[in-house]
Amino acid sequence: MMLRKRAWDMMRDEFPTVQEDASLAETIRVMREAMVEAPDSQVVVVLNKSGKLAGTINLWKLFKAVKKSVLKDENLLSNAGVDWDQQFANACLICTQMRLEDSLMKNPPILKPNDPILVVLDIFLKSRRDWALVMEGEKVMGVVYVTDVYREMTRDMVQIFK
After folding, report:
1. Could you tell me if 42 and 62 are in contact, meaning their C-beta atoms sit under 8 angstroms apart?
2. Which segments constitute the CBS domain (predicted)?
3. Which residues are registered as beta bridge partners of 144?
4. Is the pLDDT higher at 56 or at 71?
């Protein structure tokens, strides 16, 4: 049964998206909202004005972008007389101005809806990502996370272990 599973069977058809002209702050807000429903969400799909894939931004890219803005001020590194609350507020303001271009992943891991689970696992291993987009033509259909594959695999395995 497990080896019959396809990307389509495991994908989430509801996933966070932003337009390519969104700010870093907007992307962070969208990711947080997605995590309310799906705590293991890790990627935001970035679409261009015509609704086609422009790229993705994952948690690691968000962390790097936030670190870049938060640690931008040399005073933070010296620890001397720093008003941490004000520095954090300043960093948040910087995030509202930062665009996604520098943090965008232009070539995310891609699956086809009919890709079998072994192909899904292979894409995860080759891309060193724990998520992949499911695309049909130029349309993003969904996202598969490694946790989704794990749940599917172990559902059958646990029955065999009994």
Report:
1. no
2. 10-74, 104-160
3. 132
4. 56
Q: By residue range, what is the domain housing residue 69? A: 2-161
Tokens, residue 93:
């303001």
Q: How far is CA 131 from CA 48, 83, 150, in A?
A: 21, 38, 12
Edge-to-edge order in the sheet of strand 131-136: 110-111, 131-136, 139-145
CATH code, domain carrying 106: 3.10.580.10
Q: What is the pLDDT of residue 31?
A: 93
* Count of domains observed in the chain: 1
Report the predicted TM-score, pTM, of the whole model to 2 decimal places: 0.82
DSSP H helices in the chain = 7-10, 24-37, 59-70, 74-78, 84-97, 117-127, 146-161
Q: Which long-range contacts (CB under 8 A, 24 or more apart) does 150-159 make?
A: 152/2, 152/5, 152/9, 152/10, 152/117, 153/2, 153/117, 156/1, 156/2, 157/2
Higher-pLDDT residue of 78 and 37 is 37
